[in-house]
Request: fold
Amino acid sequence: MNIARLSLHEGALAARGVAVIIDVFRAFTCEPLMYACGARRVLLEGDIDRCRSWTGRAVLVGEHNELPIPGFDLTNSPYLILSRGPSLFAGRTVVHRTTSGVTGALAALERCEAVFLASFLTAGATAAAVRLRNPEHVSIVAMGIRSQAPAPEDEHCGDCLEALLGGGAYDHLAAVKAILDHETAQKFLRGDRPYLPKEDPALCLQRDLFDFALEARRTEDGVEAVPVRANGEPITR
Reply:
């Protein structure tokens, strides 16, 4: 298995083989939590107007350059998702739009044989699903800050996944310390912007809370983040 480490928008465009798109703060932390809150399916959509076309038929969750999007039901926050819980999500379709993770996954899907959506919450399950495929080439893509600048949480999650795939050592405590020291976490921890809840980093840095991976798959309604077992079998919701 050849593992390539890539980053940012350019990395998503360069991904080949089986791609693992990482967005820890916060897209791919949010998606497993929405399923935990009872969502029936989560669709990935980069275009804000196409997201709005789902108004009344789906829950709209997302951000543009970290800012809440007018007309959406919720911004892209793990803590706010848990706060709303099943009362908002149970049994419903979610349309999810983010600047880094979602757009990166959609870009990679154009040229990769499979695309997984990763965070610390699903790292172990994601690595298991990739290993079972035994691909010749794996592209681990850390999407970073607005897909334009490296973010330590995504790079360290990439280290974690590479180690799980047999490519080296990983120290999660050291990673958490480095992440919390950086502005990408500090902007939450200051608690001065309501759309960046101070509780979000605590949720984003939990490891292996879920035993499923998320795979981006094309469906008749668009691209869906499908919860899958290691063997690729979708988990019925």
Q: What stands out?
A: The radius of gyration is 16 Å.
